[in-house]
Design goal:
Length: 342
């Protein structure tokens, strides 16, 4: 039995002609051309197997940008081998055992290396972490009856390397002026492997920016090279989402700096924030030969007379990739930056 719906009069005498379309099939014209789409030269010249090997030399976050180029690259960027290599590089310190990484991928992240890389906390090696700290200081009275007030601004910079070494610097200069000194290593670091893992332990060549806010010429780059002496380096360990850093101040054999940080992200996969939980300085006895090892507990020796805990300068760190060091909001002066980045 077939039910036929006839046009009826609606409310207030309104006619509804669309009711007559019920049960009728409409022919939708096709907008897709029958002509085959011509492939690009790179798609015709390089097979998919070789393209996966080439994409393996990219950083994980650069791989995500390459996936936006075309449909073929988006499909190839999902290859499990690429994300397995990214997870092994990013989690080699927090999860040293390869078998444990595979078990965690299978049980918690449903057999997806890419999902594990996105959702598991880890440090980023394609840039540096910067924290902007400000405080108010009362000036000296000179020929006036009132005391001037100064707004002091300075930065803490961290750069982490995959081998467990990190670079540290405090400076009043913005990130675009300090990035040159942080990009070049003050010591040789041997790195095994190939691809991006080997490139991480080498000096980074920063992109030149000739626009506003960038370096004005060779003099600024030469000044950045002289600032390399102000860069300190030490060792760090990762446990879960916690990072414990330790270094010895230069020209000193007894004063240590311990930083305890926590990783978090503003959105999944970003890993772009470091919360500074505590900064502790410790003075060992002169001539001590104890091995310098990052402490697992932030307050293990806080009550010792040689330990001093610092409560100032604990603003969270913001991650700045190398390609964004000249356009980061952290380059703005204090009178223009009237907000805090959290």
């Amino acid at each position: 039995m077939t039910l036929h719906v006839l046009p009826v009069e609606g409310l207030f005498g309104l006619h509804r002609p669309w009711l007559s379309l019920y049960g009728n099939r409409l022919q939708v014209p096709s907008t897709v051309s029958e002509k085959e789409t011509e492939l690009a030269l790179i798609q015709r010249s390089i097979p998919n197997e070789l393209m996966v090997i080439i994409l393996g030399f990219l950083e994980p976050y650069s791989l995500g940008k390459a996936a936006l180029v075309c449909r073929q690259w988006r499909i190839l960027s999902e290859h499990p081998r690429l994300w397995e290599h990214a997870c092994n590089e990013a989690l080699s310190l927090s999860i040293p055992d390869r078998g444990e990484r595979q078990k965690l991928m299978a049980t918690k992240y449903r057999f997806s290396w890419k999902r594990m890389f996105i959702h598991h906390p880890h440090l980023r090696f394609d840039g540096l972490y910067a924290a902007r700290n400000t405080y108010v200081r009362t000036g000296v009275v000179e020929f006036t009856n009132h005391k001037p007030v100064h707004l002091v601004s300075y930065f803490r910079y961290y750069r982490f390397l995959p081998d467990g070494t990190f670079l540290y610097r405090t400076s009043p200069h913005v990130v675009s002026k300090v990035a040159k000194s942080m990009a070049q290593l003050p010591f040789p670091v041997p790195c095994a492997g190939s691809g991006s893992a080997a490139g991480q332990c080498a000096a980074v060549k920063l992109p030149r920016n000739r626009g506003p806010g960038g370096p004005g010429g060779g003099k600024e780059w030469q000044a950045a090279d002289k600032d390399r002496a102000a860069v300190l380096w030490g060792h760090y360990v990762v446990k879960g989402n916690k990072v414990h850093c330790t270094l010895v101040y230069p020209n000193s054999t007894s004063t240590e700096l311990h930083c305890h940080l926590a990783m978090w992200s503003t959105h999944p996969g970003a890993n772009n924030r470091l919360a500074i939980e505590s900064i502790i300085t410790r003075d060992r006895e002169l001539g001590s030969t104890a091995e310098l090892v990052p402490q697992q507990e932030p307050n293990a020796d806080e009550d010792a007379p040689s330990v001093k805990s610092h409560s100032r300068g604990l603003a969270p760190c913001v991650f700045v990739p190398w390609e964004q060091v000249h356009i980061s909001p952290l380059n703005k002066p204090s009178h223009e930056m009237d907000f805090m980045i959290v």
